[in-house]
Amino acid sequence: xxxxNVRRLCFWVSVIAGFAQVVLAADILIADEKSQPESxxxxxxxxxxxxxxxxxxxxxxxxxxxxxxxxxxxxAEGPGTFFFxxxxxxxxxxxxxxxxxPVPNTKPVQRHTALRSLDLSTGAAKIRWNLPGDxxxxxxFAIGPDKALYISDTVNSKIYKLPAGASTAELxxxxxALYGIDGITFLNGTLYVNNVFSNxxxxxxxxxxxxxxxxxxxxxxxxxxxxxxxxxxxGKLLVAENGSGKISxxxxxxxxxxxxxxxxxxxxPTAVEPAGDTIWIAERGAGKAVSIPMPN
Length: 296
Prior knowledge:
The chain has 296 residues and is mainly beta. 7% of the residues lie in helices and 51% in strands. The longest helix is centred in the N-terminal third of the chain and has 22 residues, at 3-24.
């Protein structure tokens, strides 16, 4: 094929690919620009569930819809109640949430947190477990290979574990490196957490009995800023960098990792959620849930 024809072909391939990415992308306002979507998850059928860090509501966006509707109303829980982590567990038809309520007349503000599970279809309440202590911050969670739920407590440097079928969680790990723990996920059966305060990524080693060891600092080939929500997909970690407005893919190789930025220019992205060939992002600063194509 003549060189000119090859160039034309390459040009049209790139145009078509770019068009496909535009078609796949979504930009959905959650209530309004002040809704502060902090975390999101995708339930079966492509239903998007989004928590709000500025209101006592969890929102639902039906597959193919361009607007959100209220799904959970926690306004009776007390003034200032809001939501952080969201995780859909299709196997048990459960939505896991972190619900936070400010403690009145405290300076600096303290919060009481409840880990809640709700019916994924109806929003009806199931389990409620209040994190211990006068001040706590249930932030996010991940389901492990053992089917237990692992929960990050940002301000108390802790990870809790809720065994499958249990209604009360137990302390899994407390360590000074976890002061600022935010995102938490399993990649190929290994537990990883990030730290939104120190901008670090850690591997949490487990012994044969499932007991946690000393966090292992993963050296990254470029810095990340404000790592927040984190999920695993295609053998890699997806991370929302709330401090730089980026979404990054982290490829872990032992105690080292390489960082590749796949999206920039976002307003305080706080969560990522892989769903097939799509990545959903909670863009807290814009009040939106947006999507981008999953990279190869």
